[in-house]
Amino acid sequence: MLPDSSGNNRIDGLKNIISNPKVGLLLMVNGIDEVVRIKGTASIRTDSNLLSVCPDGSKSPKVVIKIVIESMYFHCAKAVMRGKLWSDDYKVNRSILPSLAQIFKDQQKLESKALNQEEMLKYYQSSL
Predict the structure, then answer these.
(1) Residue 35 β-bridge partners
(2) In CATH terms, is domain 2-87 a member of 2.30.110.10?
(3) pLDDT tens per residue across span 24-44
(4) Residue 1, SS3?
(5) Model's pTM, two decimal places?
(6) Name one GO molecular function term (predicted).
């Protein structure tokens, strides 16, 4: 089960589950090269016994996404290893990249001010 966390505000994902409940997940843990792949069928649930199993910080979520697993297996680590995904030598310094808000603003040719990375982090922390 996955909680629809408070502040997520992404109804499009829930709409996608309603229109096509087949899902695929890639589960990755920082520093571990193996990846777990899951295929299954998702449903949106509001059962109180399920909501209490998935606490979101100090609150229970309003809905959970329940996934009935049809297949699950480890994906070979070769691609992650070849790509040096977890290597510090290949990490990009965030200070030289524009914020995601700035990238979106530029792509959409918006006139409004975009938040910088520091402002975005403050917003995230205040809305947890």
Answers:
(1) 75
(2) yes
(3) 999 999 999 999 999 999 999
(4) coil
(5) 0.66
(6) glycosyltransferase activity
